[in-house]
């Protein structure tokens, strides 16, 4: 098995780990993203010296397209978290105002 094939398989495993993560668990997600990034760098570092097959290029394209969908899942999770934090902040201001006016 060629070095490119080994690194491509490692990239596929790292990508599957990323896809399987809960997009709202930012700590674990960060680790998975870093692992995928390192695996991607290892694959791309071999491209100038090796001639990837059509199948390898197709696998890399699939990983790339799936990565776009994963990025969108992460963006939506962050957007939901921001909305939830905003709502909680607003509620705390209302409760704080209620508490202040009731203690007068």
Could you characterize what this model shows?
It is built from three helices and no strands. The chain is 85% helix and 0% strand. The model has no long low-confidence stretch (mean pLDDT 90). The longest helix is centred in the last third of the chain and has 49 residues, at 54-102. The protein starts with a helix and ends with a helix.
Secondary structure blueprint with pairings:
Elements (H helix, E strand, L loop, with lengths): L2 H18 L5 H21 L7 H49 L2
Task: Looking at this protein, list some descriptive labels.
3 helices; 104 residues; mainly alpha; 85% helix
Largest sheet: none
The SS-based structural class is: mainly alpha
Number of strands: 0
Helix content: over 70%
Q: Taking Cα atoms only, what radius of gyration do you get, to the nearest Å?
A: 22 Å
Give the helices and strands as they follow along the chain: HHH
Determine the mean pLDDT. 90
Q: Report low-confidence residues grouped into runs of 5 or more.
A: none
Approximate shape: rod-shaped
Query: Count the helices. How many?
Result: 3
Distance between the termini: 77 Å
Strand content range: under 5%
Give a summary of the structure in a few sentences.
The protein has helices at 3-20, 26-46, 54-102. It is an all-alpha fold and 104 residues long. The longest helix has 49 residues, at 54-102.
